[in-house]
Amino acid sequence: CSSLAIGTTTGYGLFSLSSVEQLDQVHKSNEIPDVYIVERLFSSSLVVVVSHAKPQQMNVYHFKKGTEICNYSYSSNILSIRLNRQRLVVCLEESIYIHNIKDMKLLKTILDTPPNTTGLCALSINHANSYLAYPGSATSGEIALYDGNTLKTACTIPAHDGPLAALAFNSTGSKLASASEKGTVIRVFSIPGGQKLYEFRRGMKRYVNISSLVFSMDSQFLCASSNTETVHIFKLEHLTDSRPEEPPTWSGYMGKMFQAATNYLPAQVSGMMNQDRAFATVRLNVSGQRNICALSTIQKLPRLLVTTSDGHLYIYNLDPQDGGECVLIKKHSLLGSGKMEENKENDLQPPLPQSYAATVARQSTVPSTSTMPGYSEDGGALRGEVIPEHEFATGPVCLDDENEFPPIILCRGGQPGKAKRS
């Protein structure tokens, strides 16, 4: 969650998310039009691009050097791509291809997967824990969990009754969140065992299409956004263990009554009563647009980031203690020159109560990005930083300019190959 990649009709762009006030464009390319997939390997110079002009071809670039590392063609349109420092996963409608990111060699092809028209899949960003999750059924909410390192099936998780709509791993690959097409219930499972850990209810009034699920890097929060104007943030905690004794109010009394009643109700009904509500929420200015969310720490404070398909980035403050309604602090335009658009609405609002969110929102000075430790034009990566060697890796991946990505020695031809060395 340290950088943002966007695909447009004219190409693609990469932005650094190290500052609230300023949106820095790290790279912009107009060489390939109509880009609908662009995935960057963390804050490195490796980027994978797919365009509508050649929807069956994946192009891998070193954008700082302006060179193409290689490209691969597949038997049908590429629907999604996921990558970490160990694996690169290409998802088609009825098959999945797993490449070794060190040399782009094809390691495994998972054929005859259930029809997956949206290319729904998730890959753990922790390369030592390279689990892959994808729909195990087109008619039910079954999750197929695959170990991308050992190249073996891990387990199958019966997550929902209806077809899946969203999947997301936490940063360590130890938890997996899921939502179905109904969008009313979000569940969190342990990985690789598949035990249900949490169950959150987004709402019961209407079905929604959840387009984005994301954990915070510390796995304390889970964010869900949909085609509605509301974004929900849930806190991963067992409320009965962490909350103090409630004062003797009518609502508290009724809550205890319901809690006692669950002992005598069927499991399915009692499970619904025990579900936790959203810890924090956001009401967007737009509705009906596809959006992507991220929970990140920017300038040492927790933020919620929302990017919408009309080309805007919204940055909100998140109160990690009290939650509630998140405060919008900045709005950026992604399709212009990358300059920030002022949030005029905040200037017109009356003084807010002295809460955490209100106090942070009124800070007028922010530290310069140049003085922040660990910042570089790569969006936070330290030059020359070496990723520790992993038992499955042939060697460490360096993030400096010259040795960032090992040269491709061999790219095999044929389907899905037709790979070309550039």
Automatic annotation (TrEMBL):
Membrane topology of the entry: Peripheral membrane protein
- Please tell me where this protein is predominantly located: membrane
Gene3D superfamilies in the cross-refs: YVTN repeat-like/Quinoprotein amine dehydrogenase
User: A Pfam family for this UniProt protein?
Assistant: PROPPIN
Residue segments, region Disordered: 362-383
Which protein family is named in the record?
Belongs to the WD repeat PROPPIN family.
Q: Which organism is it from?
A: Phoenicopterus ruber ruber
Q: Name one GO cellular component term.
A: phagophore assembly site membrane
Q: Which InterPro entries match?
A: PROPPIN (IPR048720), WD40/YVTN_repeat-like_dom_sf (IPR015943), WD40_repeat_dom_sf (IPR036322), WD40_rpt (IPR001680)
What GO molecular function terms would the record report? phosphatidylinositol-3-phosphate binding
A GO biological process of this protein is:
protein localization to phagophore assembly site
Q: Where does this protein have compositionally biased stretches of type Polar residues?
A: 362-373
- Whether Protein transport counts among this entry's keywords is no
Q: Could you identify this protein by its name?
A: WD repeat domain phosphoinositide-interacting protein 1
Q: Where in the cell is it found?
A: Preautophagosomal structure membrane
SUPFAM superfamilies assigned: WD40 repeat-like (SSF50978)
Q: Provide the alphabetized UniProt keywords.
A: Autophagy, Lipid-binding, Membrane, Repeat, WD repeat
Which PANTHER family does its entry note? Answer: WD-REPEAT PROTEIN INTERACTING WITH PHOSPHOINOSIDES WIPI -RELATED
Task: Specify whether Membrane is a keyword of the entry.
Answer: yes
